[in-house]
Write a structure and sequence with these properties.
This protein is α+β, with helices and mostly antiparallel strands. The chain is built from 14 helices and twelve strands. The chain has a six-stranded antiparallel beta sheet, with helices on both faces. Helix 1 runs antiparallel to helix 2 and helix 10 packs across helix 11. It is elongated. The two termini are about 45 Å apart.
């Protein structure tokens, strides 16, 4: 990747000038308010004394006193509002002045890099690569010993898809409730939280995960007004994250949020494009992508690496659809997908293509291993029938066809064609067995 240079943007100089002018104006308003209130009080006393010694009737004096009190309270209310706003402005300005002292030119440049990274990479990197990029950039701004992203999953729990630094492997195995730990505290409060002695985390997280770590800061990230992720930075030192770190963390959180959201959205769109919505298995497009890669590996290693694909469909599936309805047919497809997947090895890939057809990639599998896997699938369906809503049972039968690299073809297209042909031949014979033919006969 080429190095991208960014122009330095001296925000702190501009903000210092503006803050200085605003600070002077706010302090002037604040001091002028006290003087005006003093004059108003003296004026009210003089008017009150004048009315008291005048020759007005008793009723007129009561009315005059009432008007004086109302006028004084009205003026006091106006001045109080002005004073209150001035105090708030001064507090904000003091905070801005503190921030400006922190955001020197070097920090400005690093924050700007984070902003520009969103434009260049936000919608084109996988989440794991984006997490790695963000962690490296954040470490330049807020030094840490460990960085972990606490992402909220569909079960409303925290998972850690990426962590870097000390004990990162242990952190990536973490699965806790959204209310637990310093991440949970930031999730609930929707604010940056600091745990100086890891008191909060030690109550819910195993001590081995937090070994040699002594302080942390949690930064909530928002999407649509809701917290979807919490970035937690850990340090080996005590009280490593002081007020300065909190101000920097707020600036960092604002800039990395678009990057994380863009990356997660990009990954989700890819996942949706390669997933069958009914069975949640990889679809035909995903099958071809993986198969092409596996064929290339098999061609590279030749005899050292076997490769077989299976074509499977459900016998009499159209009859089942007509008899029990399409909703039941969808349930049968889901049931079949789950049953087949359980009988496969961890390295195997099961995909649903069209209608009731499934395709399987069996890396390193020759004919003997393939036959063993087919028998295992058949036995699973033979011993566990599909149950309808009315407690009626139905034993699902499958048709199989297989093709092995080199023995039956050397391209993805050839292997798929032969596997499907053998599947149809097994149907014609009325058996659940795979029929093998010499390659020359098939050609």
């Amino acid at each position: 990747m080429k190095n991208i240079s960014f122009h330095r943007h001296p925000f702190h100089k501009i903000m210092n000038q503006l803050s200085s002018k605003k600070s002077n104006n706010s302090r002037f308003v604040f001091e002028f308010g006290f003087l005006l209130l003093a004059f108003a009080s003296m004026f009210a006393l003089i008017i009150t004394f004048g009315v008291a010694i005048s020759g007005f009737s008793f009723i007129s004096k009561i009315i005059s006193f009432t008007l004086i009190v109302i006028s004084y309270l009205f003026i006091y209310k106006i001045l109080y509002t002005i004073q209150k706003n001035s105090v708030v402005d001064i507090k904000k300005l003091l905070k801005e002045e503190d921030s400006n002292n922190i955001f020197d030119s070097d920090i400005d440049e690093k924050l700007l890099v984070l902003e520009e990274a969103g434009k260049f990479f936000g919608a084109s990197l996988k989440s794991i690569d984006m997490f790695r990029l963000v962690a490296s950039r954040v470490g330049e701004i807020i030094p840490f010993s460990t960085c972990a992203f606490f992402l909220i999953d569909k079960n409303n729990k925290f998972v850690v898809p990426f962590a870097i630094g000390k004990n990162s492997r242990l952190l990536e195995s973490l699965n806790i409730e959204c209310r637990d730990g310093i991440a949970g505290k930031a999730f609930l409060s929707r604010q940056i939280e600091v745990d100086k002695n890891l008191v909060t985390d030690r109550q819910k997280i195993d001590k081995d995960i937090l070994a040699d770590l002594n302080s942390s800061i949690a930064i909530p990230l928002f999407r649509g007004g809701e917290v979807f992720c919490v970035l937690v930075l850990y340090s080996e030192g005590d009280n490593s994250f002081e007020k300065e770190a909190e101000i920097l963390a707020e600036a960092v959180g604002e800039r990395i949020t678009p990057l994380i959201i863009g990356s997660l959205s990009y990954e989700l769109s890819i996942s949706n494009a390669l997933t069958d919505t009914l069975t949640h298995l990889p679809n035909e497009r995903a099958f071809y992508l993986v198969l092409e890669n596996q064929v290339a590996e098999a061609q590279r290693f030749q005899e050292q690496r076997s490769l077989t694909i299976l074509a499977i469909d459900i016998k009499n599936f159209d009859d089942l659809n007509q008899k029990y309805g399409h909703s039941t047919g969808d349930c049968i497809l889901g049931y079949s997908a789950e049953m087949i997947k359980k009988q496969l090895r961890q390295m195997d890939l099961l995909c649903r293509t069209v209608n009731d057809e499934f395709l399987v990639i069996l890396p390193t599998a020759g004919e003997k291993i393939t036959e063993h896997i087919i028998k295992r699938i058949e036995n699973a369906f033979r011993h566990k029938p599909f149950t309808f809503s009315n407690d009626e049972n139905c034993f699902i039968e499958l048709s199989f066809g297989s093709a092995t690299f080199q023995a039956d073809g050397e391209t993805a297209t050839q292997l798929i064609k032969i596997a499907k042909l053998r599947k149809h031949q097994s149907k014609d014979n009325g058996e659940n067995s795979v029929i093998f033919f010499p390659r020359q006969y098939l050609n």
